[in-house]
Amino acid sequence: MIYNGIDLNFVCRDYLSSLQLLCLCEGLKPLIRLNAYVDQLELYKNFCQQNSLSYYISAYKIIDKDGRIGFSSKKDWTFQESAQGYHYIYLAKDPTLLKSDLDNISDRDFGKLLGYPECCLDAYDCNVNQVRMNKIDFTALTIESSDPASFYVNTLIRYFRYALIQHFPCSVECADSLKMGEQVYTLLQEKYPQIANQFRNQLTCFAIHLGETEIYYANDFTESVSPYGKRIKFSTIKYIQKNELYKDLMEFKEVEIISPRIIKIGDKVVTGEYLRTIIYK
Questions:
Q1: Is the pLDDT of residue 71 over 70?
Q2: Mean per-residue pLDDT for 113-131?
Q3: Rounded distance, CA 92 to CA 21, Å?
Q4: Res. 73 pLDDT band, cuts 50 70 90
Q5: Which is it for strands 2-3 and 6-7: parallel, antiparallel or unpaired?
Q6: Which of 23, 115, 187, 202 is least buried, going by the fewest C-beta atoms within 10 A?
Q7: 3-class SS at 16?
């Protein structure tokens, strides 16, 4: 992903962060926050200087306890001098956006700075304690039917470094969130069509959620009607960690969806308070 002669992936080290930086440079985002290890800081500083961006580096470092960088609910903060962890680096075209106390800003005020929809900020405030206490993803609280959703608002597989929006939509039908996702995808299509196709191919999927470490998805799936509701067949499934459910999925390579919260794999019925299934198209 080359921008003004600079490889964004070399600076950011992954497509998801590179996409955020692209959106900032192209005016789709007013402010972004990225993870930056010490050896990345000079790269970011040089990029900002060459592209008329301002930046602020957090006064502390973050350590993810479970190793899932950027999306873990298990974080520790440590002093700058520590050899471990990464900084947050905040980047903006407008330097006044960096004058807030970003090290101590509330989630809601920070969401406003990032340009997130008000309805989604409300939903976040209502659900954040439940999400953290039960170790689930916000998506589990926004899926209420088996109807397909747009890949524009697929945030469930951001754990695998693919997403077009960086906030949690209040619902998969949120008009503001869908618009933001479409704008980002259109930008990718215009600038990097091959990468846009890669994002769409990954974000178009059948996904299962049981918890923040139990998320599975398949891109090569087919749908058909079953006696129980809908049958999904696939050849492989992607996962965060292997467990008994993963083994069952790979053994039978099909799931029967009885409801968004009840699935059948072989002879086994799987249910749970936060089990959700969804198809993104």
A1: no
A2: 94
A3: 10
A4: very low
A5: antiparallel
A6: 115
A7: helix
Q: What is the largest CA-CA distance in the chain?
A: 61
Residue type, 253: K
Which of 136, 135, 138, 133 lies closest to 121, judged by CA?
Answer: 138
In sequence order, the 6+-apart residues with CB closer than 8 A to the CB of 228 are 256, 257, 258, 264
- Residue 267's Cβ-count burial label (10 Å; 0-12, 13-18, 19+) is exposed
Residues 186, 259: contact at Cβ < 8 Å?
A: no
User: Residue 168 in contact with residue 119, Cβ under 8 Å?
Assistant: no
pLDDT band at 81 (very low <50, low <70, confident <90, very high): low
Q: Which residue has the tokens 């959703």?
A: 149
What's the pLDDT at 122? 96
Q: Give pLDDT, residue 51.
A: 97
d(CA 281, CA 200): 9
Q: Distance between CA atoms of 38 and 89, rounded to whole angstroms?
A: 11
User: What is the CA 240 to chain-centroid distance, rounded?
Assistant: 14
User: For the residues of 212-225, what is the DSSP string, one character each?
Assistant: TTEEEEESSEEEEE
On whether the CB atoms of residues 152 and 185 are closer than 8 A, the answer is yes
Query: At how many degrees (to 10) do helices 175-191 and 193-203 cross?
Result: 140
d(CA 235, CA 45): 44
Determine the Cα angle at 47 with ends 41 and 49, to 5°.
105
Flag whether pLDDT at 78 surpasses 70. Answer: no
